[in-house]
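Whiteboard transcription, Tuesday session. T.W. wrote the C-alpha cells on the left side:
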C-alpha cells in the first residue's frame, strides 16, 4: 500500500492516519536546517488564534513561533515538500473526490515548555480548511522528551510521538487535538492544511 493510500485508509477507518517516512530523511533534515536558520535570523513570529478580525495572540493557548512557506518556493527542500503535497492532493482528489484546490503550510517551533491547548484547526469565519497534515522534524526524539500530540477521537485519545519524518493526517473541522509540553527540548514541525476555497 502506498503512503498516500495509507493516509486515506487511516482517515476512513480510524478518523486519522499516522505514517513514518512520509518524506525522505534527507528532505526532513534539510527542512529542519531551514527552520533553524529562520529561527536564528529572527524570521519566525509568534502564532495567534483565529483569523483576520478574530485573530489574537494568546500565550495561554499556544506558544509556538511560525514562518509560512511559499507554495511556489524554489528552495530545494521546500520545493520537494510542495511537490509531495501536490501529488498527495491529486491522489486524494482522484480517489475520494474531495475537491481540494489549495494548501498552506508553515514551519512551527515550540520552545522548551511551550504548548498548544486542545483546539480545532477550522476557523469560525473561514471553513476552507478540510484536512490537517503535520510532518515532524525532530531528531532523536524519545518518549521521555514529551511534546506528544494528542488526537481526541470518538473511540478515545490517540497519543503521537513527534518523531522525524512522521506524518499525521486528520480532518481539520472534526478532530480536536493538543500539543503537550516538551520540558527540556525544542519541538519542530511543518503544519499545514489542505483546503477547498
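and on the right, the sequence the group agreed on:
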Amino acid at each position: 500500500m502506498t503512503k498516500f493510500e495509507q493516509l486515506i485508509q487511516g482517515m476512513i477507518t480510524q478518523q486519522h492516519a499516522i505514517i513514518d517516512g512520509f518524506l525522505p530523511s534527507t528532505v526532513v533534515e534539510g527542512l529542519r536546517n531551514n527552520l533553524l536558520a529562520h529561527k536564528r535570523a529572527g524570521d519566525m513570529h509568534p502564532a495567534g488564534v483565529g483569523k483576520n478580525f478574530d485573530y489574537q495572540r494568546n500565550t495561554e493557548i499556544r506558544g509556538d513561533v511560525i514562518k509560512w512557506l511559499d507554495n511556489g518556493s524554489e528552495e530545494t527542500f521546500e520545493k520537494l515538500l510542495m511537490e509531495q503535497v501536490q501529488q498527495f492532493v491529486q491522489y486524494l482528489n482522484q480517489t475520494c473526490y474531495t475537491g481540494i484546490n489549495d494548501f498552506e503550510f508553515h514551519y512551527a517551533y515550540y520552545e522548551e515548555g511551550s504548548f498548544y491547548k486542545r483546539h480545532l484547526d477550522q476557523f469560525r469565519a473561514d471553513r476552507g480548511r478540510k484536512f490537517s497534515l503535520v510532518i515532524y522534524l525532530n531528531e532523536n526524539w524519545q518518549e521521555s522528551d514529551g511534546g506528544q500530540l494528542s488526537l481526541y477521537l470518538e473511540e478515545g485519545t490517540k497519543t503521537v510521538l513527534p518523531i522525524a519524518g512522521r506524518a499525521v493526517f486528520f480532518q481539520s473541522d472534526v478532530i480536536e487535538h493538543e500539543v503537550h509540553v516538551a520540558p527540556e527540548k525544542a519541538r519542530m514541525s511543518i503544519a499545514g492544511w489542505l483546503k477547498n476555497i
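Someone added at the bottom: The mean pLDDT is 90.
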